[in-house]
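Posting this for the archive.
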Amino acid sequence: MNIKRIFGSILTILGIVGLIYAAVLFAGNSGGTSGVKSLIIYAVLGLIFFISGIGLIRSTKDES
């Protein structure tokens, strides 16, 4: 069991959850600027977590 691969999976899952939450905020936004700040924050954090998690999983060698 590789710790880096597990941490990469956790980051990827957190990124997916953040992106889904940003999509829900985007769908529920009624055109005002009240929720734009939180929408941008969740979208950017979700994207960063997702990309770093995928990168960590891909760069970790599978040593059995």
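The CA atoms of residues 50 and 61 lie 19 Å apart. The chain has one domain: 3-59.
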